[in-house]
Structures are given as structure tokens and as C-alpha cells.
Amino acid sequence: MTDRHLYAIDEVVTFQPVGQAEQAFTIVRQMPAERGGPQYRLRSNATGQERVAEEAHLKSASSQS
Fold first, then answer.
1. Is residue 6 situated within a structural domain?
2. Under a CB-based contact definition with an 8 Å cutoff, are residues 50 and 41 in contact?
3. Is residue 1 part of a domain?
4. 3 or 40: whose pLDDT is higher?
């Protein structure tokens, strides 16, 4: 079975880390699904820090007004 990812590599998305304001991140890598949904390796556009997040917690930055 192939995982279907909603977001592409190099796409900018928004993510809200626990206890922090929503931030812009760039998709670095698509990862296999774990615990029910696709995952991504993200790089913060502000700090360069990388983290892993599930697709359900991301929003497309292009849809933000």
C-alpha cells in the first residue's frame, strides 16, 4: 500500500507546536504513515530547527489569508 501525502516536498505549511504560536515550516521529506496518517519532516522557516509532524496537524500556508 502506498501512502498518499497531501503536501509536497518544499511546500510551505503552517504548524502550531505545543505551547507556541503557529509558525511557517517547509516540508523537507515525506515519511511513512504511523499511528494512522502520513508524517513529514519539517524545517522551521524562522529558526531552521527540524521536527516530525503528522499531516493532520498541518495547514497549507497558501490557504492562509
1. no
2. yes
3. no
4. 40
